[in-house]
Amino acid sequence: MHRRLFPRALALLALVATAATAGAPGATAESPTPATTQLRATIDTILGDTRLDGAQASVVVVDTSTGQTLYDRNGDRRLIPASNTKLLTSTAALALLSPGHRFTTDVRTTGKRRAGLLSGNLYLRGGGDPTMLAADYDALAAQVAADGVRVVTGNLVADDTRYDRTRLGPDWTWDDEPYYYAAQVSALTVAPDTDYDAGTVIVHAGPAGRAGAPAVVSTTPPTGYVRIDNRAQTVAEGETSISIEREHGGNTVVVTGQIAVGDAPASDWVTVWEPTGYAADVFRAALHRHGVRVLGRTVLGQPTPEAADPVARHASMSLGELMTPFLKLSNNGHAEVLTKEIGRVLSGAGTWSAGLTAISEYVADTGMDTGTLRQRDGSGLSRRNLVPATEFVDLLAAVRAEPWFGTWYEALPIAGQPERFVGGTLRSRMAGTPAAGNVHAKTGSLTGVSGLSGYVTSADGHLLAFSILLNNYLTASVKALEDQIAVTLAGYREGATTAARMAPPAVPETPRTPEGLECSWVKPITC
Predict the structure, then answer these.
(1) Choosing from 58, 83, 445, 520, which is the catalytic residue?
(2) Could you say which DSSP state residue 179 is in?
(3) 83 included as an active-site residue
């Protein structure tokens, strides 16, 4: 990996900017302009909100065109970044794998063929693709059938050996394990829909035609890999209260509660135990639909022989295209797959350790001081991740020089844009403010942890890089405070002449679900 010149270039830019600022009327390093003084006073007021009593706040704002630091509150303090961690993972993936990188899924065999009979095993070799749908496995099966195979005498071997067998990330909490945002990571997996939450199945529970009958339960995609324990009942009337939970250590999904006749089905995304078997089950069913019988059993985790002949192949969308569902929807699974893929491509080891080492080397090359931070996973689900806000801002400033920056910038969530694959996790925030359609930033949420880091164009056209990290608060949400800061930055104009304290701007509250979780974090499409 070639060392980069970002740190030296940024240092030179900062020296030039400092000299220019010091020479401006009424501005020195010790004496900021009236506009900057006003900006700092306003952000101080926002951070003085009682919702942050006893909490920790780290906020840094830099003008990327001059290198001037407009605001710094505890910028060197290491805080839990949650999904802001994806800024490191996504930029490293684009730099180290390239925007054109694709994942491939192959079907191969070493068997001999005669009149539609394949004497040997059929190998389904996973390449890590987190976007594989049931339809893609169906297309692979159609290719196998079109190649003339009708009967396979051997086994269906599901090869997930591109990555190691460590399925869950370091430090992830046990009670997150059944939920879509903590799915097991495998090089061979299935996503149920085009949100591409690989390693999950959508379970639907709808009402029967009469009260007293069991609820009608189905899955997307249809699969026998998940066993449904249906305890839910249909009632004549009343509030729907369906619970869908997978038991630990297996693929039994327990459905409980009630649903009224005529109500719309309740749905939830549930992780599967061992995604490799899930993919093999979906593929085997697809083979059967296309008239291909496999007489042997399904075998998991064995490598495909190097001499195996290709039968079918599927290539994923490019990594540049994958950035949109990855960053817009803050897809944890994508972050972890990319971490292992980086490790596999650069060092031959598809492990978290190898991937994180390469990510660290890349972000160090951009100018981040990796001696001040700790990254334990690709997504930010680990609470042992620690990153100072100033290091995020250094990264945000540096990657503007990358050839893929435009692709990455557009893939970040955009404030106040209601389309899910435009606004992403910011689609319901800052609408109707100067930040709407302006702020491109990565959100982050864990219990007691919130973050927003990215870019905003100021009122005088300067691109500002900012990072807001808030930890250890007890209130339900502090996202309105992040939004107030972002809206303040969108209205910032260096030419302002008054240093009077400005009242924090009013922003719409982030919509909330009945469970009290913020729509920027939870799954329901209605958020």
Answers:
(1) 83
(2) B
(3) yes
pLDDT for residue 250 is more than 60: yes
Residue with tokens 């290198």: 67
pLDDT at 526: 31
- Cα 181 from Cα 183, distance rounded (Å): 6
Q: Which of 58, 90, 267, 330 is catalytic?
A: 330
pLDDT at position 26 over 90:
no
Active site residue 330: yes
Site of tokens 């009958």 = 213
Contact partners, residue 401, CB within 8 Å, separation at least 6: 6, 9
Catalytic residue among 58, 86, 267, 477, which?
86
The burial class, CB within 10 Å (0-12 / 13-18 / 19+), for 249 is exposed
Give the C-alpha separation, 517 to 136, whole Å. Answer: 33
CA-based nearest residue to 398, from 440, 375, 368:
368
Distance of alpha carbon 81 from alpha carbon 384, whole angstroms: 10
pTM score, whole prediction:
0.91
Domains identified in the chain and CATH numbers: 34-99+320-521 (3.40.710.10), 103-166+275-317 (3.50.80.20), 200-271 (no CATH)
86 is catalytic: yes
